[in-house]
Amino acid sequence: MKIPELNDGALLPLAESFYSIQGEGYNTGKAAFFIRVGGCDVGCSWCDAKESWNPGLYPPTPIETIVEEAIRYKAKSIVITGGEPLTYPLDKLCLLLKSNNMQIFLETSGSHPLSGVFDWICLSPKRKKPPLDNIYRYASELKVIIEKSEDFEWAEENRNKVGSNTLLYLQPEWSRRTLILPEIIDYVKNNPVWNISLQTHKYINIP
């Protein structure tokens, strides 16, 4: 994966940006502007944004251009996602968003060092490239994707590393949701520290 020259975060490989509704986790139902950064070296087989993996496909975009679009919309919530957004230094982007009074939500696997300032961090750990140890303490929510029964053990491994105030979510892998959701329901009933997250944006057919 070739990382483009980005001037210490003043430029970012913007895969797409759009105004929609957050569909997953604690902030489900919130209107938000989404900033999807290209580039990911985690490579989950079930990823629903595989087109974002190669950062070379996306021209480096000035963060001023990204923020100018974001502030046109009524919602003051920003979701920074990917790809894996922490591949890049996000301090400059976050400072510019904050100067425009934006709330910033981060979606990350935690596999790269934390940069930037966020109001909410959703940590979604992946087995192929686990989170760095020091990111767990910053997680506002832990969202573990459940594809098969063995993933409950992975979820518990990660639950033991986050803070006591971190919200806990299990989310069915979309292509296996019919098969795995009954297991998740039973698991949450027996382990009520967990909540269920659903990809509601897919059910209501929005980006």
Assigned CATH class: Alpha Beta
Largest sheet: 9 strands, mixed
Helix content: 10-25%
CATH homologous superfamily?
Aldolase class I
* β-strand amount: 15-25%
Strand order, main sheet: write it out: 3-1-2-4-5-6-7-8-9
Rg is 17 Å
Point out poorly predicted stretches: none
Judging from the principal axes of the Cα atoms, what is the shape?
globular
Based on secondary structure, the structural category is alpha/beta
Based on the structure given, which CATH architecture is correct?
Answer: Alpha-Beta Barrel
Query: How many extended strands?
Result: 9
Report the average pLDDT across residues: 95
Q: State the end-to-end CA separation.
A: 26 Å
Q: What's the number of helices? A: 5
Q: What can be said about this structure in brief?
A:
The chain has helices at residues 63-70, 91-99, 151-159, 177-190, 200-203, and strands spanning 11-21, 31-37, 60-62, 77-81, 103-108, 120-123, 141-146, 167-172, 195-196. The protein is α/β, with parallel strands linked by helices.
What descriptive keywords fit this protein?
207 residues; alpha/beta; TIM Barrel; 9-stranded mixed beta sheet; 21% helix
